[in-house]
């Protein structure tokens, strides 16, 4: 729909100045909006016209042009979004070519046969006056809408109240979807239950169609939808905050047609909702800043900072003598620059987590960083701990898959500790789980408790000792592989995975049994260790794990 406000071609044809004029083509376009009037005195006029204009001309140029040139003019006028064209056909031509008329009908582009005796000025002036009066009336109506919306905002009303204002002015069903808070606000009026179902399906289809694409459109959309076998106009207005879409306002022309006034109402309402969301984001940013500072102090190894945090624990409703477990969500961005989109994503995930915590009846403290979200879960009994944490992480992973789409993330879950002062240990565990989760086959979600021997090997204090152990055991194998393009390290790794079964190892490596046997003998000779000796076998298996841990 054209954004201009004005009067329709149908309204123009009812005016006294047009009493002797006829609409001869493009009847289906009679609802086109005329926002202004222009005269075509120059064939290049189309370079300077705007959509919504009614173009006035004579058939003088048509007399000289062939039919294809005339059709080209009509086609270009329609493409430019003009409301229509008025032509003084007589006395230059007897009639417009039937081919031109048929093209205009096909394009729903109105052609008006202007009465030759009426000056253009007698047509332009009344139409301009009518447009001015219509726009003045529209401005008055919009001012009332603005007052209603401001009243809602200033009285501390909710977005639901904004939805009611939209519905009262559009007199058509309205649905508002707020991505920020996972809310859907509906004002459907007295539509029948069956119609209500169709509207909700149409609303859902909009997001289903865009699923996987990530809706980034910041522009208003108008489409014709089929609802209950009827062609219904649907308007979708995005709610844009900081250059990101935070939701949409939907309306369907079920009761009355949707036009320029309705579009302006949706624009004003969208801006009002965007301001309310911006206010909520600002409040959350301030709250998160305090939460993040508190958490940094709590996790600090500095005694004074930690004591300071423990003294302020009450402010965040955290008790000193409860059990805690840390869940860290690490977002892996392709860029080091923090964009509005990244901040939006973190804010939305934060909101999702808050909703999830409520649904699962958990107690949690949430603090965001620029590339991660820290969730501190509180527990009282160990029996419920494992189940509730697992449920939380399973739902969280599903949510992140939908929210992040192609973006990468990792979730690390630390061990439970009793006492708020011990939370830093759970945080360190969670980070270790994120860093080394792939070593136990966990690419997305890793529990530190499930990391087996890696729980011991990944301790920072062991780094130097691990390096020495690595060098003394399988470094010669690594160097041999590098020089000879061999696969002895891979063979040794898969040897342990196949529990020392050489036949299975040969199948897994797709090599002949004798080749596999030869490789095993080379491994033993180069390392000086015997795989039949349980001590040597244990050392080599641990060495393989250390190699992965050190990312050698």
Automatic annotation (TrEMBL):
It comes from the Bacteria. Residues 305-435 form the CdaR GGDEF-like domain. Residues 488-546 form the PucR C-terminal helix-turn-helix domain. Gene3D superfamilies: 3.30.450.40, PucR C-terminal helix-turn-helix domain (1.10.10.2840). InterPro entries: CdaR-like_regulators (IPR051448), CdaR_GGDEF (IPR041522), GAF-like_dom_sf (IPR029016), PucR_C-HTH_dom (IPR025736), PucR_C-HTH_sf (IPR042070), PucR_dom (IPR012914). It holds the Pfam family HTH_30. Residues 11-131 form the Purine catabolism PurC-like domain. Belongs to the CdaR family. This is Transcriptional regulator, CdaR family.
């Amino acid at each position: 729909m054209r954004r201009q406000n004005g009067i329709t071609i149908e309204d123009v044809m009812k005016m006294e100045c047009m009493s002797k004029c006829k609409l001869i083509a493009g009847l289906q376009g009679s609802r086109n909006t005329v926002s202004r009037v222009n005269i075509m005195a120059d064939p290049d006029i189309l370079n300077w016209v705007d959509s919504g204009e009614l173009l006035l001309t004579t058939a003088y140029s048509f007399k000289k042009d062939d039919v294809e040139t005339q059709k080209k003019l009509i086609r270009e006028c329609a493409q430019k979004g003009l409301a229509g064209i008025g032509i003084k056909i007589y006395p230059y031509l007897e009639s417009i070519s039937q081919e031109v008329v048929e093209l205009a009908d096909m394009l729903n582009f109105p052609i008006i046969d202007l009465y030759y005796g009426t000056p253009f000025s007698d047509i332009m002036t009344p139409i301009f006056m009518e447009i001015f009066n219509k726009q003045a009336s529209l401005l008055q109506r919009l001012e009332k809408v603005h007052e209603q919306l401001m009243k809602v905002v200033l009285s501390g009303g909710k977005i639901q109240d904004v939805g009611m204002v939209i519905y009262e002015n559009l007199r058509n069903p309205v649905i508002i979807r707020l991505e920020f808070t996972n809310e859907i606000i509906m004002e459907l009026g007295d539509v029948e239950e069956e119609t209500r179902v169709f509207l909700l399906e149409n609303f859902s289809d909009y997001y289903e169609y865009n699923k996987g694409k990530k809706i980034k459109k910041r522009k208003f959309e108008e489409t014709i939808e089929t609802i209950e076998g009827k062609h219904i106009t649907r308007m979708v207005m995005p709610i844009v905050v900081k250059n990101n879409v935070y939701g949409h306002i939907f309306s369907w022309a079920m009761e009355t047609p949707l036009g320029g006034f309705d579009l302006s109402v949706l624009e004003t309402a969208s801006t009002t909702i965007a301001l309310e969301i911006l206010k909520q984001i600002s409040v959350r940013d301030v709250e998160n800043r305090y939460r993040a500072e508190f958490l940094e102090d709590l996790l600090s190894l500095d005694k004074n900072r930690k004591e300071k945090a423990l003294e302020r624990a009450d402010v965040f409703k955290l008790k000193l003598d409860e059990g805690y477990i840390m869940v860290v969500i690490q977002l892996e961005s392709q860029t080091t620059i923090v964009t509005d989109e990244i901040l939006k994503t973190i804010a939305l995930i934060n909101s999702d987590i808050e909703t999830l915590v409520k649904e699962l009846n958990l107690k949690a403290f949430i603090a965001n960083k620029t590339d991660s979200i820290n969730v501190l879960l509180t527990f009282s009994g160990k029996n419920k701990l494992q189940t509730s944490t697992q449920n939380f992480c399973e739902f969280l992973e599903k949510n992140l898959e939908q929210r992040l789409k192609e973006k990468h993330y990792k979730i690390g879950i630390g061990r439970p500790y009793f006492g708020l002062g011990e939370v830093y240990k759970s945080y360190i565990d969670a980070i270790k789980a994120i860093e080394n989760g792939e070593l136990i086959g966990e690419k997305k979600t890793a529990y530190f408790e499930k990391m087996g021997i890696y729980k011991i090997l990944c301790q920072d204090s062991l780094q130097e000792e691990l390096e020495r152990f690595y060098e003394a055991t399988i470094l010669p194998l690594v160097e041999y592989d590098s020089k000879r393009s061999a696969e002895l390290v891979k063979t040794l790794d898969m040897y342990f995975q196949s529990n020392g079964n050489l036949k299975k190892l040969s199948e897994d490596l797709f090599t002949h049994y004798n080749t596999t046997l030869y490789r095993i003998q080379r491994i033993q000779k180069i390392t000086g260790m015997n795989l039949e000796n349980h001590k040597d076998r244990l050392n080599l298996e641990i060495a393989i794990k250390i190699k992965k841990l050190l990312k050698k």
